[in-house]
Amino acid sequence: MRASKRSVNTAIDILQNVFGYPSFRQPQDEIISTLLDGGDALVLMPTGGGKSLCYQIPAMVLPGCGVVISPLIALMQDQVNALRLLDIKASFLNSTLDANTANEVECSLLAGQLDLLYIAPERLKQERTLSLLRRSPIALFAIDEAHCVSQWGHDFRADYLLLNMLHQLFPDVPRIALTATADARTRSEIISRLDLTEARQFVAGFDRPNIRYRISLKQNAKQQLLHFLQDEHPQDAGIVYCLSRKKTDEIALWLQQQGFNALPYHAGMDAGSRAEHQARFLREEGVIIVATIAFGMGIDKPNVRFVAHLDLPKTIESYYQETGRAGRDGLPANAWMIYGLQDVIKLRQMMESSQAVEEHRRAEQHRLNAMLGLCEITSCRRQALLNYFDEILARPCGNCDNCLQPVATWDGTEAARMALSAAYRTGQRFGVNYLIDVLRGANTDKIFQFDHHYLPIHGVGDSLDTNQWRSVFRQLVARGYLRVDLERFGALRLEDKCRPLLRGEEQIELRRDTKVKAARQKTKTLLPDDIDVKLWEALRDCRRELAEEQGLPPYVIFHDSTLRDMCSVLPQDLDQFSELSGVGERKLQKYGPAFMRVLREHLHEVQS
Ligand code: ADP
Ligand code: ZN
What integer pLDDT is reported at residue 516 of this predicted model? Predict the structure, then answer.
């Protein structure tokens, strides 16, 4: 046993005095004791769950330096700055440092002067670095974003595969691997590749109750996005995800024209502008990043108020990770998505044309189907999401679109049968638009050309309009009754699953798609009703000035939640100020007086 009672106390001391938080969240304290006792840990916690403290605090308690391996080179400087602000001795080593600076960092490591050192994995495998570590006092190894070791996921980094050597080279140094990726397959890959069979596993609940999930039908994507932003996030920072680089550029430009502070981000841009846009997103307030999935991993900006998807992610894992970037500070945030039949077709197309082996492809199909299922369900989205990660939520959440506005369904059995026979009778060679023409009894040249006006189904479906039929087809594809044949330009083909429905042995309930207008709703804002908006703005200005002076992102000074507490607690002096969550000793000294001045001015104004 390495840990004494005292070091456990020290951990809570550090939490309260350095970080300014009153208590640990479950299971942070147990993870920390495991490391303090010399054990290894595997931590699965959702984004925003509080993973960093799990290695930062033991690194400060144990003798030697905590070495954090992270693929996120671009963010290391910010992470280190934020720690230094708390008087924690932190540094980083990666390819962006010049030789002199790197040398200095190495010397302070050797001299035992560092609490935390962030290292890029490609750096770690160099003999020079390993020899340096062998000669230095090491408290622990933290492997952040540990799912990068998984070849199954989409963040795979070859350098991560070498990390199992840490165990062989430093058998006595505790290791902690952390990820927000929840699925069982990735977990077992992490364990085997990083040699963590002996590690204690900590799986925190994956629910993110402050995120409101909404998925609606794509009708006019740009207008829908605009309404969403104008109604609910006119000033907020957020991320808009698109599938293609071209669309990313286009939407960013369009949002700029609409008066938003929007910037594109994708792998096709040069590294310089990418870094600049990321930095602006972190440093300025209210910036919207329009991005492909290339953006986001490790972005720990706590006050991202919304994540909007203009295109469907390929899997629930991706959807959950991407939406998880909203609301890390625990305050209300929106996960908003629109999707339509075209998305399904496009994604299926991408999968069919991928070079992946058959087994992999089938798994991808399976995961896409689960994603489509989530889009179409009429019950609580959060229950379905958590269920996907094998977690049970006993009651509907009350904070997703389906809970807030129950979806009407209708008996679509008859319509579904008509749709399926239309596909069948026309030889399974036509796409959705043509089938709708046939069902609605159109007399187009193409229909005459194929003699389809003689078919008995021609015109049987004129009681539904085109949009309603599109809705029926979309749901049939999403639920796996119809398949999009890509060899034939999107022709719809019947799947075996159709049989019982066609034979009249099965009924089908369909979602009644609502019009965009009806679905337009205001959600509650970040601020409680009783908060004085003027004070809130004044505190934000104060934070912005301090941040600019020091070249830091504003949230590094204080989180929105701490500012919000200032507004509702209205501390009278520094003593009361020090009680706020997020105010540690260092920040109290450094920033307390400036914020107290704003608070006093406000009180003065109110009283006079
Ligand atoms: P993750 O890395 O799991 O996404 P972070 O480590 O960035 O999450 O933590 C998310 C936020 O929660 C941070 O702003 C952090 O300061 C805050 N936090 C972490 N632990 C606690 C705690 N015990 N009490 C209050 N806030 C906490
Ligand atoms: Zn719900």
Answer: 54
Report yes or no: 324 and 180 within 8 Å, Cβ to Cβ: yes
CB neighbour list of residue 106: distance below 8 Å, 6 or more residues apart = 93, 132
Does 83 score more than 90 pLDDT? yes
SS3 at position 67 = strand
Same domain? For 584 and 489 the reply is no
Residue with CA closest to ligand 1 atom 23? 24
Domain with 152, as residue range(s), is 5-203
| 526 falls within a domain | no
In total, how many domains does the chain have?
4
Task: Name the average pLDDT for the chain.
Answer: 90
Alpha carbon of 111 to ligand 2 centroid (Å) = 54
Half-sphere exposure of 212 (CA within 13 A, CB side): 22
In a domain, 496, yes or no: yes
Q: Which residues form ligand 1's pocket by a CB distance below 6 Å?
A: 21, 24-25, 28, 45, 47-53, 300, 302, 328, 559
pTM > 0.85: no
- 522: in domain: no
Does the pLDDT value for residue 413 go beyond 90? yes
The number of beta carbons lying within 10 Å of the beta carbon of residue 224 is 20
| Percent of the chain topping pLDDT 70 | 95
Distance between CA atoms of 110 and 103, rounded to whole angstroms? 11
Judge whether 416 lies within some domain.
yes
Who has greater pLDDT, 21 or 48? 21
Question: Domain check: are 190 and 170 in the same one?
Answer: yes
Residue pLDDT, tens place only, 569-580: 999 999 999 999
Amino acid at 285: E
Digit-coded pLDDT (tens) for 440-498: 999 999 999 999 999 999 999 999 999 899 999 999 988 889 988 777 777 899 999 99
For ligand 1, atom 13, the nearest C-alpha belongs to: 50
Ligand 2 ion: Cβ-proximal residues, 5 Å cutoff: 380, 382, 396-397, 400, 403
Nearest CA to ligand 1 atom 25: 21
Residue nearest to atom 10 of ligand 1 (CA): 48
Beta carbons of 94 and 119 less than 8 angstroms apart: yes
Give the position, in ligand 1's atom list, of the atom nearest the Cα of 300: 7
Pick the atom of ligand 1 nearest to 25's CA.
23
Q: How many residues does the chain have?
A: 608
Question: DSSP string of 397-429?
Answer: -SSBHHHHSPPPEEE-HHHHHHHHHHHHHTTS-
